[in-house]
Amino acid sequence: MNETITLRTERLILRPPVEADLEGYAALTADAEAARFIGGVRARSEAWEARPALAPWRGAC
User: Fold this and answer.
1) Which residues lie below 8 Å from residue 16, measured CB to CB, with a gap of 6+?
2) Best exposed site among 2, 6, 18, 49 by fewest CB in 10 Å?
3) What whole-number distance in Å separates Cα of residue 44 and Cα of residue 38?
4) What is the per-residue pLDDT across 18-32, written as a single tens digit (0 to 9) for each?
5) How many Å apart are CA 16 and CA 58, to the nearest integer?
6) What is the DSSP letter of 30?
7) Mind listing the pLDDT tens digit for each residue in 5-60?
């Protein structure tokens, strides 16, 4: 079964990454203060390739 599950709360939506997330994720990974908690600063060109680390339980996204 390859069902996608989305969890929603008042302040959070937790779901697998989608292509529309790239801009926000690239900005996050470019910010040194935020990126230190997620493996370090990445160039925008590297951000999307890093997405399997966001959902390792799903295998390749």
Assistant:
1) 4, 55, 58, 61
2) 2
3) 15
4) 888 889 889 988 999
5) 8
6) H
7) 899 999 998 888 888 888 988 998 899 999 898 888 999 888 878 766 665 555 54
Which tokens go with 15?
């779901």
Torsion from C-alpha of 42, 43, 47, 50, nearest 10 degrees: -50
Q: How far apart are alpha carbons 53 and 50 in whole angstroms? A: 6
Q: Are 52 and 60 in contact (CB under 8 A)?
A: yes
**Residue 17 structure tokens:** 């990454």
pTM above 0.90, yes or no: no
